[in-house]
Amino acid sequence: MTVRAGREFLAIPGPTTMPDEVLQAMHRPALDIYSHEMVELTESLLADLSRLFATKGHSYIYIANGHGAWEATLSNVLSRGDKVLVLESGRFAVNWGNAAKAMGAEVEVLEGDWRRAIRPADVEARLRQDKSHSIKAVLAVQVDTASSVFNDIEAIGKAIRAAGHPALFMVDTVASLGCMPFEMDAWGIDVAMSGSQKGLMTPPGLGFVAANDRAREVHKTAGLRTPYWDWTERDGSEHYRKYAGTAPVHLLFALRQAINMLFAEGLENAFERHRLLAEAVRRAVAVWSEGQVLGFNIGEPSERANTVTTVTMSDGYDPIALQRYCKEKCGVVLGTGIGELQGQAFRIAHMGHVNAPMILGTLGVIEVALNALDIPHGKGGTEAAIEWLGESVSA
Ligand SMILES: *Cc1c(COP(=O)(O)O)cnc(C)c1O
Predict the structure, then answer these.
(1) Model confidence over 193-202: pLDDT tens digits?
(2) 61-119 pLDDT, tens per residue?
């Protein structure tokens, strides 16, 4: 017997739930890609992406996932043999660095671990040692979707400036843009990137990059430039070049609708919604943890992301069995533990088009699974989430 008829609910950190309005926005014929309407669509999206990144710099849209957007950032500012410093805090910055290595950069990883955020003081100390300024770029993620850590990008930007180091600061916001505050210019970020399918509620397939003037100056002499990713090609006035070919018209319709919805809600409200729902998840996980089997991967509360929560499982209890129960019996798909946490954790995504019933339903289903599978846990986790929302969302 199952209780899973109806729509399967994705509580995975990408692709996320798409609003019906976003799905419907794509259900129409393509545009003439040389039309005025097409040019206006592109211009409105580029302007709004810059607004989301909070930059006066230039934005670029690629037909690519996040991995493609990583390559876009690297190829536009690096030359073969350039040194890149990767700030480890889980899986994603390291993978971005691996791309840089494969492209011919020299990569150094400033070691962190899977259970805490990047320490800005470590970054400053490492950069101060680099007296010859051989490091050309510093790579960091705002939210690492594997560990669910939240890095204080503003503080890291300050640390880089305090070290007086000229390296470009490049930040991955794939799992945070539109969900948590991000201030590219105010925080001293030179290049930022993101993707369509997480907080931005759009189908997978679009990658976004923003670059400030400093990055675009470095770009002029970068040796790794290739025609598809190249900012200079895309900066021209010819619309066709903005996508290095045919525009991904339907994905752009979807993105237009998603950003409209985000702006209609108000970015600040969206950030607050994410904070409230994330805290509801954390209240539940904290109660379940009293059973000594479940726990937060990120120990320090201020380092927990508002978009995804990685929950560890110990004592030989299998998170895959829990995930299977939630999916096959109840129709809720949880994220799996990846990288170092494979087989030891599951993840609850709470990013993008999420509301109280989605989150409370997900928590309720996890609690059903914990009971059904006899996994020791503190009782009343979902109730704690409900209490939190009742206290915090005023009438
Ligand atoms: C999902 C994700 C990526 C990779 O994006 P893809 O679209 O899967 O290539 C990169 N960075 C972070 C932080 C992510 O969460």
Answers:
(1) 999 999 999 9
(2) 999 999 999 999 999 999 999 999 999 999 999 999 999 999 999 999 999 989 999 99
Residue 83's SS3 state is strand
Q: Are 370 and 219 in contact (CB under 8 A)?
A: no
Q: Which domains does the chain have, with CATH numbers?
A: 9-16+266-392 (3.90.1150.10), 31-263 (3.40.640.10)
Amino acid at 348: I
Tokens standing for residue 264: 């209609």
C-beta of residue 293 within 8 angstroms of C-beta of residue 346: no
What residues flank ligand 1, with Cβ below 6 Å?
A: 14, 65-67, 92, 141, 144-145, 172, 174-175, 195
Q: Return the pLDDT at 108.
A: 98
Strand ranges, E, within 159-279: 168-172, 191-195, 206-211
Grouping H, G, I as helix, E, B as strand and the rest as coil, residue 94 is helix
Which residue CA neighbors atom 4 of ligand 1 most closely? 66
Residue nearest to atom 5 of ligand 1 (CA): 66
pTM, two decimals, is: 0.98
AA identity, residue 218: V
Question: Residue 15 C-alpha to ligand 1 middle, in angstroms?
Answer: 10
CA angle 316, 318, 319 (to 5 degrees): 135
Query: For the chain, which residues score pLDDT lower than 50?
Result: none
